[in-house]
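Researcher: Here's the sequence for the chain we discussed earlier.
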Amino acid sequence: MTSSKNRLDDTFKALLTRREEKNRLRRLTLRQSGVVDFSSNGYLSLSTNPEIKSAYISHLQSSADEFSLGSCGSRLLDGNTLTAEKLELDIAAFHGAPAGLLFNSGFEANTGLFSCAPQPGDYVVYDELIHASVHDGMKLSRARTIPFAHNCVMAREVQSSSTLRPLDVVLGDLLSGPEGQKIRDGQKNVFVAVEGVYSMDGDVVPLKDIVECVERRLPLGNGYIIVDEAHSTGWLGGRGKGLVCQLGLEERVWARVHTFGKAMGCAGAIVLCTPTTRSYMINYARSLIYTTAMGYPMLTAIKTAYNYLRSGRADGHLAHLLSLMQETHALLLSVCEKHDPPAQLFRINTSPPESPIIPLFSGQSRSLARHCQQRGYMVRPIVAPTVPKGTDRVRLCLHAANTVAEVRGLCMAIEEWLREQLARDTSSKSDIMPMPVASFDAASVVEVSKL
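Model: Thanks. This is the structure I predict for it:
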């Protein structure tokens, strides 16, 4: 007789098979030695920086009294340390914030913050492309949630393909709706959730416009903006302080989430906020309360990375990274102009990149990624449902350790793949007998144009 455990495995196998048939099965992979990294989020290449690694080891060796492998408890029990509290103060001061609270990851920071901050009857208005961790936090909250069109503040900015409304319209509808009076009177709060840089498209949020929109619509101050700076920490703004600091909006943004697993090269995260909000999360953020706190080695890694930024020694890496962004985009534009591929085969955004993330849109993103990988360049295909249907892409991430020669080699590999695809398409078309013009009708032409 089949046990219930085996029946459950059978259910799992069927679900995995269904996902594989749709070409959506996820697998763990190991980074191959010798490949050029155009995939990871370590934009400043700090995780492998010899100077940082040497400083980190020196810190550990000179702190025998404080050193322990782990904290062995949550921060509310036995896991809190002076090292953690001092690090929070130092990071908050670096980013111009009054206080901060460390979390083990950006995911835990977002789930903790969004699950407990909104009160019953409050609203969370969020960018449609907000990170999955924010979605999970909102599901755990007592708030009502409404998406708005990606990076669109006013009605004129909405793309014709979008089914969502801009932020200004969403807020206007809230204020004129059934709960409008309570929102206008300040009895109900509206939280607005955005990212500093969006990880799939690499575009920067129009944060100044969003702040002005929220302040205009909610003049009593019950509009609270939360910015996830995961992909802007470390490289954007002076000394890598992030987008909020770059725009001088520290006093007008309610909370920021800075993560350390990307440009900072280590792990963990911090929520920057008021001292009262910090105390509130210590009491109500379950992802902090019920997890083991970070140990001394990780706290020291974060401290070492921040010391490197604060000293200005990362400025040269950043200058090279910014130059590389322009060089890469120019080379890709040249490839597109030379071959003029159909948009569904390959296209890039024509405007200059706003971040080290450059999406290479392709309906054959898996084939493109595989071709580049076989030639020694690590890139990853990103397909639906991770990105909206019809926007499959290879995500190209640049790093300070990449060289111009490596970028040129990657672009040559992309062009080689493109030539092969175009030649194959041309060959396929030549094998097909032309259809008489009279056999076409308007409906068939419209359907072809949608492909």
